Amino acid sequence: MIGIFDSGLGGLSVLAAIASALPQADLLYFADTAHVPYGDRDDAFIRQRVLAIGKHLAAQGCTLIVVACNTATAAAVAALREQLPGLPLVGVEPGVKPAAAASRSGRIAVLATASTARSQRLAQLIEAHAGGVQVAVEACPGWATRVETLQLDDPDFADEARRHLAPLLAAGADQIVLGCTHYAFLRPLLEAIVAQRATLVDVAEAVARQCVRLAGATALGQGRLTLLATAHPERLQAALPALGLSWLSDRLSGAARLALT
Ligand code: DGL
């Protein structure tokens, strides 16, 4: 079984890519909805949550774990690797490398939570992979919460998003990295603002390919999906249609359940 976790709904964008790439794998999605958003928390808090959830997923029998959250990966994937030696782990990091490679203007932007935006790990990723490309990092507080509350096409939020994107586009950024898994669900709203001046870069497909490489026998199951949440599991399940993921409901093994409370 593959365990995939996030603070809330965002990691469902990664789950969807994995479910498509590995249709027979059994998947366990864990949303830490009692503590979302992670992006406004300090590193120690995020690390403690990531370690507790990672160990819980391992105890449930997960033989591959995906940290489907840029914020959790930046703050705690290294600590989780230390705690779960030998267990294959996949983290999610902003697509700086593909964006820098695809940029024609030599300018890219990364949209991320406040926690990811100030992280050492993002600074190192940019240092290692942006080459001569100029990278603007834009913290977007509150955006993940918009997704959690399913305000995916709210006009006030569109104005707020425009205020963040306008200076980046004016500066010539032609690749905008979605550096938080929640932002994948804002793609239609963001695409309307960007209006072909830039490409939105998301790494869910790349993460799914990495899972295919690491899965081995974990790829072979009955294609069942289990949903767990630390608060309001019913909301997690009910959000699937609003997020364009109704097709995942067919794989559900039962109703979403509370866990690790
Ligand atoms: N989905 C998460 C990420 O990729 C975190 C959002 C949040 O909880 O603030 O960064």
From the helix content, strand content and strand pairing, which structural class follows?
A: alpha/beta
**CATH-assigned fold name of the largest domain:** Rossmann fold
- Total number of strands: 10
Order of helices and strands: EHEHEHEHEHHEHHEHEHEHHE
Taking all residues together, what is the mean pLDDT? 98
Q: Biggest β-sheet: count, sense, barrel?
A: 6 strands, parallel
Structural summary, described in words:
- Helix content is 45%, strand content 16%.
- Helix 9 links the parallel strand 7 and strand 8.
- The chain has twelve helices and ten strands.
- By secondary structure, the chain is an alpha/beta fold.
- The site of D-glutamic acid has 16 residues, from helix 3.
SSE blueprint:
Elements (H helix, E strand, L loop, with lengths): L1 E5 L5 H10 L5 E5 L11 H17 L4 E4 L2 H14 L5 E3 L4 H7 L4 E6 L1 H4 L2 H10 L4 E6 L3 H6 L6 H16 L4 E4 L8 H8 L4 E3 L2 H12 L9 E5 L3 H10 L3 H4 L7 E2 L3
Parallel strand pairs: 1-2, 1-3, 2-9, 3-4, 5-6, 5-7, 7-8, 9-10
Helix pairs in contact: 1-10, 2-3, 8-9
The protein binds D-glutamic acid.
